[in-house]
Amino acid sequence: MCNGMTGVSPKIGLGLIGSGFMGKTHVFGFATAQRVFDFPFKLDFATVCDVDEASAEAARQSFGFRRASADWRSLLKDPEIDIVDITAPNVLHKEMALAAIAAGKHVYCEKPLAPSAAEALEMTEAAEAAGIVTQVGFNYLKNPMFALARDMIASGELGEIRSFRGVHAEDYMADANQPLTWRHDPAGGGGALADLGSHVLATARFLLGPIVSVMGTCKTLIPERPTAAGSRETATVQTEDVAQAFVNFENGATGSVEANWVATGRKMQHDFEVYGSKAAVAFSGERLNELRFYSMDDRAGLQGFRTILAGPDHAPYGDFCVAPGHQLGFNDLKAIEVRDFLNAIAGQGLVGPDFREGYEVQKLVEMLYRSAAENRWISLS
Amino acid sequence: MCNGMTGVSPKIGLGLIGSGFMGKTHVFGFATAQRVFDFPFKLDFATVCDVDEASAEAARQSFGFRRASADWRSLLKDPEIDIVDITAPNVLHKEMALAAIAAGKHVYCEKPLAPSAAEALEMTEAAEAAGIVTQVGFNYLKNPMFALARDMIASGELGEIRSFRGVHAEDYMADANQPLTWRHDPAGGGGALADLGSHVLATARFLLGPIVSVMGTCKTLIPERPTAAGSRETATVQTEDVAQAFVNFENGATGSVEANWVATGRKMQHDFEVYGSKAAVAFSGERLNELRFYSMDDRAGLQGFRTILAGPDHAPYGDFCVAPGHQLGFNDLKAIEVRDFLNAIAGQGLVGPDFREGYEVQKLVEMLYRSAAENRWISLS
Amino acid sequence: MCNGMTGVSPKIGLGLIGSGFMGKTHVFGFATAQRVFDFPFKLDFATVCDVDEASAEAARQSFGFRRASADWRSLLKDPEIDIVDITAPNVLHKEMALAAIAAGKHVYCEKPLAPSAAEALEMTEAAEAAGIVTQVGFNYLKNPMFALARDMIASGELGEIRSFRGVHAEDYMADANQPLTWRHDPAGGGGALADLGSHVLATARFLLGPIVSVMGTCKTLIPERPTAAGSRETATVQTEDVAQAFVNFENGATGSVEANWVATGRKMQHDFEVYGSKAAVAFSGERLNELRFYSMDDRAGLQGFRTILAGPDHAPYGDFCVAPGHQLGFNDLKAIEVRDFLNAIAGQGLVGPDFREGYEVQKLVEMLYRSAAENRWISLS
Amino acid sequence: MCNGMTGVSPKIGLGLIGSGFMGKTHVFGFATAQRVFDFPFKLDFATVCDVDEASAEAARQSFGFRRASADWRSLLKDPEIDIVDITAPNVLHKEMALAAIAAGKHVYCEKPLAPSAAEALEMTEAAEAAGIVTQVGFNYLKNPMFALARDMIASGELGEIRSFRGVHAEDYMADANQPLTWRHDPAGGGGALADLGSHVLATARFLLGPIVSVMGTCKTLIPERPTAAGSRETATVQTEDVAQAFVNFENGATGSVEANWVATGRKMQHDFEVYGSKAAVAFSGERLNELRFYSMDDRAGLQGFRTILAGPDHAPYGDFCVAPGHQLGFNDLKAIEVRDFLNAIAGQGLVGPDFREGYEVQKLVEMLYRSAAENRWISLS
After folding, report:
1. How far is CA A336 from CA A132, A319, A352, D65, in A?
2. Between chains, do C304 and A293 touch, taking CB under 8 Å as contact?
3. Contact between B208 and B255 (Cβ < 8 Å)
């Protein structure tokens, strides 16, 4: 799939769509991944696209691409491009991804995969039929502390898993003067649940596996917002500020989820707690290098939640730094995400989350919206 | 109501029913309250009752009462007794309380007030008709940090209140070998929700006011337990290990509640977070002398959750210790509870929680059980 | 030693000198100890003394003593009094204690034992010669978490002890408008080192054993203070606001100590960290129910400081509360201190700190003052 | 100074000496800086040197340099190279830096600048005479939270500064089986004090300014170590495991410093606390995105240490991520360090730490060694 894989220094070409903040973050991820990890090919930052030509050219220079383009379709025909990386608004994801898949490109797409589960499924099935590699940008899952928690759960260290509590709360919509955005338009996929709750659902699945039934509730706490920054004209907010959910897992555990973008004071409260019959783990998103762990195997009188600091014992931390406690940052997680994607392309196994996982999360989001609208539990079938 | 209130040293007589752990805690509360606070009367530790005569006599000596009795009804006719303090099993609360009310005694009763809301209401109406003072033992509410949080909410410091998250999780039932108790018998009032969830509901009402609708779910995660300690015989568990709830408040806020007695590693996770349009507060039960507070009024770049340590600024901390940061303990909260009860008897205003508040909490517990059984939202009216 | 020990209900009589805050705290300790623990005798709150007759009488009523007196010497001749409890200013400690010892009373004395080591030694030798029981009020040492730390060190759980870091910082003198007190008069024993540093030295000895050499430095950061509250007249401050020390332990460990009463924001930073070859413990005075513990025996990748919450595993917590995580308070520690004193009187073994330990701490304080004045290391022998 | 600065896309050429871990970290810093920040020139990764030719070639490919060399002197004559970046062992720093300075190159050198203050001063004076830009790699100083703390101190937010407490403790030498390294040879500059204490001294100076007198003590707690990994042969350790210091600042504040590399459980305890007359700040190296702040200006009853989370308000965080709370990592700090160096080269002002600052820190380290050896206070002048 990569051009020149047989040569001494095979290249893999990257085409990026979108030059905004997420585009920059992806470039950071690719560049860092290449320096930190070993791959059997070298990245070629081929083309960056943006609808605005000047933005594309500026990004080309600043991001270090060889070419700029205002036409994302130009990537599809370019034989030097192996990867199409989509950081455009999510209403465009499907069209772009389907075209890239049809052109045989590997596709890396920001979350959420699509505004609806049906679209996400269409994208997933197309990708699977084409045999290309996909990835969705749930980068919190790439935290080595998440891998540690998941491995402890999977290995039975926690015993039988009993309950999960997950929250993703921020306050970036807490100010009632914050104007309406596309996130307040239901056509974009929804409010706090779609935006932040999807992260918690992805985390829940990552750690505990499939969710089989859900009950949700949504609430819009700021009913009116300005139509634009500083505007005195307001309009009705149509998406939720807070969503809460009960979830039941296939493994028998029970759980709760909260998504909240008006949680004054919270900047990255992507927190979870998992309780098992033998042990428990807890995580706070504002301290991403720490996992708290309580084990009933510890001696009586000496039991307590211990704070495990990320270090070389927690791969791939050691690729970034040889000493523990020095801490990874948010951008480093993106580099790990890129690593998993590139390794999958190199045939070293799929780690995901791929499009199918993006679809599964989207399906849960939709189930929760339906549950909230109909005030009833909904089972996966 | 108190005998001899006109004299120099009027007395108020205490009759205690129950000499177990909670009885001891109440005695601690009365004794400490008397030393720490000023009252217009002196406590007379008159009679302690226990069905077991030997236990009653042992308690008399150890707790410092003048008389012991195996007949709780003896308290009713004793003119030296002004207060009947009930720490007996909660299935007995109603009979004892109604008799004490009929005898014109003030009644202090451990939580939950009664196994059912109907019984709690009957007790409440009898007490109100008799004009006696009542109190229910929700002692977490007596934490000065709770008063601080409530006052900040009431004064508008937090702005419009938007959301509440409350948890009470412990792990005292986490061991599947822990045998069945009366808490596993639905006739006792219920499982984790009745036991621990009632505390969260009391806290939620204390801070945010009335709850108008609820949606709940209950789950028994340990389906079988030994019938007795060490027994190989097991029986089916009939009450829930975990309960989750969505709650809507009269003031427009949304909230969630979790009660969990199998949360491995948690000893006193009575935690809450309250988010308002201007500020937020958060509390952890395992650190009862701390309240975390975030204010949008703090200067940009210097905002953050601050940890307020209990001190003399937070009455009645200063009655226990003149210096901040020295910390109150669980038992001290019981002394504050007693203070409020005695002050109400002395005519200095009712702070509560009284029987009516106990009834309101019990009503919410029942609504949640019905909601969980019927898988639907239930509104108060 | 106790009058009536042969009877069914032997009594032990208490005479308290001082009715201020510490007096109240001691009464709280005696009263609570009697309810929480079992002793082979009953406490008789015989007489409370205060130089001011009205204060003594008020204390009699409020504290629940049988008699009040303005003459502390009256306690000495009273055969009903077994214990003389001294909470008067520390310049009076020696005279009172020596008289009480001469009268054959057991003596409980607030810290510091005396303004000078010489006086403390005189008191110690008199007490030892008389064979009476003594105790000094270093109540932080009574925290069950301290006992846990000391036992872990003593049992070899931490391996060879290598280093100690201890701090006691508060901010009650941080305001430069805070007027001069007896603590600013060197005759009272010294400043932050004598007041707060003595606690750290007591803790260091409690945990690691004897200190063999010290090097100290003292600094007065607020050179002038008002002579009285609100006064515009100021005078030179003659005691230190901050003291720092290096200490070497007999066991080979190295350590540091800081005492600081102008540490803005600190209310009870009585913190310590002890590092051993196999494990470490850390404690923060503002969270007295927690001990942090790191063990190299924990599995690689799962190591971290764990927070042990005080509970029934940590005697005598269970005498106060049957459930873990409910938290003891500052006043409860005083009750534990009283327990140890009463148990020693009952012949159940000396726990201390007794007068000799009070002397040892005072000796270190003086060595540090001398070291600071002479800018040199000082060894014990 | 830069070749081609007049053109549209001027370049600045980088020559790196050393291809080990620090070399990789520096490359990460340069590469990330270039993507994250804007500079008036483009970096040219010209040549990487390593004494081992194969290592140099491997680094060339992996780090993305154009040329590899086994001869660091080749950089000096290369007109395409503007910057010489030294990550070689510190005994080589002086020779390399003096040669680079003589060749008119800007010099970026890892800490410590040199094993002795005399050498550091020679390097400093040569650089200043040549007018080239220098920088020493004290990257902790580049944390936006450090800048925040320093700015608060400088602006008077904390009032008069009274005391400083600084620690750098790790446990990477805690295992007595850890063999001897160059750090155990005094010729390398010293032990824990030179290695870790230098960071605390740099932090102290960064925050509070010049230190005018010091008193130190050093202790070797593990007297013998294996001469090589797994070897049964041991030799005497000649550098200290723990160093403690008292320091007095020019501004009148007092302080203490601890360096400890056998602090079991500590991975990055680079902690400081600064107390002023109006406010205080505290920092923990294991949570590099947080600064704790206590202000007496907060309302009574609502005061407490607040945790400020790094965000876009704390430049240059926003260049890495648009949202607060997402967290920077250790490697990101290196990119900020590079930014300051490149900006200085571009004539946008010197931020440092430059060679002179490296010399000042080294001078303090030496003063402390002398103080410890001679058991006395040493003043700067």
Report:
1. 20, 10, 11, 23
2. yes
3. yes
Residue D290 Cα, gap to closest chain B Cα (Å): 9
Residue C145 lies in a domain: yes
Q: Could you give the number of structural domains in chain A? A: 2
- ipTM of the prediction: 0.94
CB contacts < 8 A, B to C, total 110
Of D138, D159, D188, the position where a domain reaches its end is D138
Q: What is the CA radius of gyration of chain C?
A: 21
Residue A32 CB: number of other CB atoms within 10 A? 23
List C-alpha distances in Å: A340 to A123, A155, A353: 20, 22, 9
Mean pLDDT of C90-117: 95
Q: Given CB atoms, is B329 within the 8 Å cutoff of chain C?
A: yes
Residue C226 contacts B where some CB pair is shorter than 8 Å: no
Asked whether D115 and D105 are in contact (CB, 8 A), the reply is: no
B142 secondary structure, DSSP code: G
Inter-chain residue contact C265 with D279, CB threshold 8 Å: yes
Instruction: Name the band, by pLDDT with cuts 50, 70 and 90, for residue C331.
Output: very high
Note whether residue C2 is domain-resident: no
Residues of D in contact with C265 (CB under 8 A): 275, 279-280, 294, 303-305
B345 in any annotated domain = yes
Residues D118 and D213 in one domain: no
- In terms of domains, do D167 and D296 share one? yes
- Asked if residue D194 has pLDDT above 60, the reply is yes
Range of the domain at D54: 11-138
Mean pLDDT of D291-295: 98
Average pLDDT over residues B2-21: 73
The verdict on A85 touching D (C-beta cutoff 8 Å) is no
Q: Which of C163, C264, C376 sits opposite D275 (nearest CB)?
A: C264
Same domain, yes or no, for A210 and A89? Answer: no
Interface of C with A in 135-154 (CB under 8 A): 148
C-alpha dihedral (B5, B11, B12, B14), degrees to nearest 10: -170
User: Strands A290-295, A305-309: parallel, antiparallel or unpaired by DSSP?
Assistant: antiparallel
Chains that touch A (3 or more CB pairs under 8 A): B, C, D
Could you tell me where the DSSP H helices lie in chain B? 21-36, 53-63, 74-77, 93-102, 117-130, 144-154, 192, 198-208, 317-320, 330-345, 355-374
Q: Is D174 on the interface with C (CB under 8 A)?
A: yes
- C164 touching chain D per CB within 8 A: no
Closest CA to C158 of C306, C276, C281, C305: C276
DSSP label of C195: I
| CATH number of the structural domain spanning residue A85 | 3.40.50.720
- Contacts of C among chains (3+ CB pairs under 8 A): A, B, D
Does D262 contact C275 at a Cβ distance shorter than 8 Å?
Answer: yes
Determine contact, residues D81/D23, Cβ cutoff 8 Å: no
Instruction: Verify whether the Cβ–Cβ distance B325 to C285 is below 8 Å.
Output: yes
Contacts of B9 (CB under 8 A, 6+ apart): B41, B42
pTM of structure:
0.96
Residues A97 and A149 placed together within one structural domain of the fold: no
- Whole-angstrom Cα distance, residue C109 to residue C127? 12
| CA pair distance A189, A116, nearest whole angstrom | 6
Residue with tokens 């009268």: C103
Minimal Cα distance from D63: which residue of A?
A35
Q: Which of D62, D63, D329 sits opposite A329 (nearest CB)?
A: D329
d(CA A12, nearest CA chain B) in Å: 42
* pLDDT tens-place string over residues C199-257: 999 999 999 999 999 999 999 999 999 999 989 999 999 999 999 999 999 999 999 99
Whether residue A329 and residue D325 make contact (CB cut-off 8 A), yes or no, is: no
B370 touches chain D (CB under 8 A): no
The verdict on C251 touching D (C-beta cutoff 8 Å) is: no
